[in-house]
Amino acid sequence: MAFLKLYRKKLIENYTFLDTIFSERKIQWGVVTKLLCGNTIYLKEVIDLGVMEMHDSRISNLKKIKKLNPNIQTVYIKPPSRLNIEKIVKYADVSFNTEIYTIKLLSEEAKKQNKVHKIIIMIEMGDLREGVLGEELMSFYEQVFSLPNIEIRGIGTNLNCLSGVMPTQDKLIQLSLYKQLIEAKFNVKIPWVSGGTSVAVPLMLKNARPMAVNHFRVGEALFFGKDLFTGETMEGMHNDVFKLYAEIIEITEKPNNPTGELGENVAGHTYEVNDDVDLSETSLRAILDFGLLDMQPQYLAPTDESITIIDSSSDMTVIDISNSKNKYKVGDLVSFDLQYMGALYLLNSDYIEKRVE
C-alpha cells in the first residue's frame, strides 16, 4: 500500500525558522492547514509545534481543530455561504468576508450563540478572486462596523491564488493605505492588516514589507519551504517535509509502444504512436500501487532521478526503471518528492496511508 510520510524534524525546523523571522518583525501569523485535508494525525503534529492560530477553508477541518484544542484561534479563509452560517460561528473564531448580506447573517447567528464573531474584510487588489472593490470599501465598512456581535478584526487581501498577481511592495502599500483611511474616517483601530501569505514571505525577508502589514497566513512555505517568486527552496528551510512511498507490484521488460487498435484511455487521452520510433524497442517497466484516484503524476518527482514516470491509470502508475543503477525488485519502495498540489491530492485520498517519522 502506498503511503505518505511527514518528517517531523523537518517540519519543526521549518516552523522554527518562520516563527523566528515573524517574531523578530513583531508579525502575528497563523498556519494554513487546508493542505492537510483534516487529517487528524497531521493536525496534531502542527498543534504540537505550539501553533495557536490555524486557518482553513473547510468547516469540518476547523471542527477537528477545535476538538483537538479548543483554545486555538480558528480562521475560515473564504467568504461564508448562507447554509453554513451556524457552523461557521460555532467553529470559526474569525472569517473572511466580502458581502454585507453575509455579515448580517453572521451577526444574527453570533447573537443567538452568545458570541462575538470576528471578521476580516477582504479587499480586491487585482487577482480577481474574493474582495470588496477599493472604491466601495468605506461604504462597506460603514454598513458593517456597528453590527451587534461582530468585531472587525482587520482588512486583508489574497494575491497569487487565481490570476497569479504577485504581492509587490506597491500592492501592500496600497493595502496599508486602506487601513489609514478607515482609521482616520471612523476613528477606529484596525488590529490586523492581513496581506501576507507564503508568496509574500520573500518580500518580508528583503525588508520590503510595509510595516502596517502585520499579519501573515502561511501554509506552503511551512510545508515546502518554497520561495514562490523564484521557485527555489528558501535558505534554511526544507522542501521535503512530505514524501510519497509506493510499492512495486510488477516488473517486466515490455515494448515501448502499445499494439492494437487505439482508443481513449481511462483519463480520456489517446496514445499517439510515433512512426519514427522502432516498435521493437523495449524498456524495463515497474508498476506502482497508486493511481489517478490518489494523485496527478505531473506533481511527482522520483527521488531516483533516473526513473521516468510513463503514465497512470485509476489505481496504478507505470514507471521506466531501465536507466536506474538500483536493482529494483517486486516489493521494493519507490519514493517521490512532491509539489504542493501533489501533496494536496494525496492528503485528500482515503486510499493513501498517512505516517509520521
Overall residue-averaged pLDDT value: 95
Contiguous runs where pLDDT drops below 50 for at least 5 residues: none
Approximately how much beta-strand content do the residues carry? 15-25%
Please name the fourth-level CATH homologous superfamily of the largest domain: Alanine racemase
The number of helical segments is 10
Shape verdict: elongated
Q: What fold name stands as the CATH topology of the largest domain?
A: TIM Barrel
Domain Alanine racemase N-terminal: 64-225
Keywords: Isomerase, Pyridoxal phosphate
InterPro entries: Ala_racemase, Ala_racemase_N, PLP-binding_barrel
Cofactor: pyridoxal 5'-phosphate
Structure description:
The protein contains 10 helices and 16 strands. It has 357 residues and is α/β, with parallel strands linked by helices. The protein has 2 domains: 217 residues, TIM Barrel (Alpha-Beta Barrel); 105 residues, Beta Barrel (Lyase, Ornithine Decarboxylase, Chain A, domain 1), CATH 2.40.37.10. Strands 1, 10, 11, 12, 13, 14, 15 and 16 form an 8-stranded mixed beta sheet that branches. An 8-stranded parallel barrel has the order 2-3-4-5-6-7-8-9, surrounded by 5 helices. Helix 4 packs across helix 5 and helix 6 crosses helix 7. It is elongated, with a radius of gyration of 24 Å.
